[in-house]
Specification:
single chain, 13 helices, disordered N terminus, Amidohydrolase-related domain-containing protein, ACMSD
């Protein structure tokens, strides 16, 4: 008989909050002054605060440098990166931006070989938390791999990428349910990447949330919903908001360059953020950069500054902004980032 392991942590499932709709304020030259105020709100350097709020990035990637790949951590064939994403570069960017910690999501560049990210987690245990990639191999070996990554290597989240599932299979298949269920038992949040559109996968997410309500869910990059300009996009965004009925679902306010139709500072996302906070509550929204892909777009520091500008256009209160920029994800991963 299998031994039932105790959860790694007890994740709080928040009560649902209904916020009143917020006015949408367009970005203008006059609102440039809000940037400096926003920077102060998220800088973590308020001298009057007894415990400065940490800034935590909920979504970024690292991969081997070309030299590391040649020596020890090879790229998955056909997935060689075109951007630098090694950990020393990341640490430089985080220091410049004043970001205290991050959740590293296993990159497709190394696919199911987690050795590079594992080495980074061991190198910087107070700086980073790991999110592994679920392996949906039909023989079920991915379930054991997931458990080993969590219980032996210390990963504390797992990503479901529907595009690595076997052809014709859905994330609700036997392997998907086994990993999703086990994640709930271990207190490990599951991230969903819906790069080709939420509408393609929302029914799978709903089924998993309904069947396994104790498993926390993180929707990457606003579930890839852009400011809607047609009926299909309006429906997708409506589906995202309706997922707020599941108390276990959180939204990553991340990778602005992927979902905005405008250049930095991506002010068209303020209306989306307003509605997401109204539906989910700021306590279920977390900021993320999508490093290193964000670097050529607006720079890593720019990703943090854009979040502040967008939040001030909603507008959000300082306490709501603190939740989004770090407090919420620190609550999800209790015990991390306390010494970083």
């Amino acid at each position: 008989m299998a031994v039932r392991l105790k959860p790694l942590l007890s994740l709080p499932v928040p009560h649902h909050f209904n916020y009143s709709p917020r006015p949408f304020v367009y970005f203008s030259k006059k609102s440039q002054r809000t940037i400096s105020a926003a920077k102060m709100a998220t800088s973590g350097t308020d001298k009057t605060s007894p415990s400065p709020t940490k800034i935590i990035d909920s979504h970024l990637h690292v991969w081997a440098s070309p030299q590391e790949a040649a020596d020890k951590y090879p790229y998955f064939p056909g997935q060689e990166p075109t951007l630098p994403g090694h950990v020393d570069f990341l640490l430089e960017c985080m220091k410049e931006a004043g970001v205290d910690g991050a959740l590293i999501v296993q990159p497709i560049n190394h696919k199911f070989d987690h050795s590079l990210v594992t080495s980074v987690l061991k190198k910087c245990p107070t700086k980073f938390v790991g999110c592994c990639l679920a392996n949906p191999a039909e023989d079920g070996s991915g379930v054991k791999q997931f458990e080993d990554l969590v219980l032996k290597d210390g990963y504390r989240a797992v990503r479901f990428n529907p595009y690595v599932w076997p052809s014709g299979q859905q994330m609700t298949n036997e392997v998907g349910k086994a990993i999703f269920s086990r994640a709930g038992e271990l207190g490990v949040p599951v991230g969903f990447m819906c790069m080709k559109g939420l509408s393609l996968h929302v029914s799978e997410i709903e089924k998993l949330c309904t069947e396994f309500p104790s498993t926390i869910v993180l929707l990457d990059h606003l579930a890839f919903c852009k400011p809607p300009i047609n009926d299909d996009e309006s429906l997708a965004f409506s589906e995202l908001l309706k997922l707020s009925r599941f108390p276990q679902v959180y939204v990553k306010f991340s990778a602005f360059f992927r979902v905005s139709r405008m250049p930095f500072p991506y002010q068209d996302l303020s209306q989306l953020l307003s509605q997401i906070v109204s539906s989910f509550g700021a306590n279920r929204v977390v900021w993320g950069s999508d490093f290193p892909f964000v670097v050529p777009e607006c720079g890593y520091k720019g990703a943090k500054e854009a979040a502040s500008v967008i939040a001030n256009q909603v507008p959000l209160s300082s306490s709501e902004l603190e939740l989004i920029m770090g407090k919420t994800i620190m609550q999800l991963f209790q015990g991390q980032w306390l010494q970083s």
